[in-house]
Specification:
single chain, 190 residues, alpha+beta, seven-stranded antiparallel β-sheet
Length: 190
Amino acid sequence: MTMVQESIRVTAPLHDVYGRWTRFEEFPRFMDGVEEVRQLDDRLCHWRTRVAGVAREFDTEIVDQLPDERISWRTVGDGVKQKGVVSFQRLDDAHTRVSLAMEVEPQGMVEQAGYALGFVEERVRGDLQRFKQYVEESDGTDSGWRGRLRPVDSTGEAPPSAEPEPPERPGPYPGPLPDTPGEAPGAPHI
């Protein structure tokens, strides 16, 4: 898998920035190649994408969602393989840092060449820049979903635990993304 990490500073309060990101069905407005995102339930989204002429459909699962702090996800099913975490850090009353870390498994020689040439990093950078513009041009009155989703174990139940402590250091995700919830204690779970 290929790791991509990018951050951007958005001129908007944390609450507004986080709320805008949770409006998953709005992703086609700022994510290049995303044609549609349908939220199926609190955890699952169905995606339709077209990148370099290649159409794909896949589902993602929200693994962990802590309002105003982070959202982590992974693909489910066969086909597209990716996982990631987006985190939100209050810089002051009017500024928020958005940090995205994701791992993507390129499919086929064309995608592998694209990853090797840095096209994924450029695309993510562009998506974050368009998200910044999307948020900064909004009137700030719309808010997304603010519910808490905890990682679940193999039985489908959330493990009993206290709310996690704030991360010791802000910024992008500090290391490899875990494959299963609970794999890296104290770190965002994917």
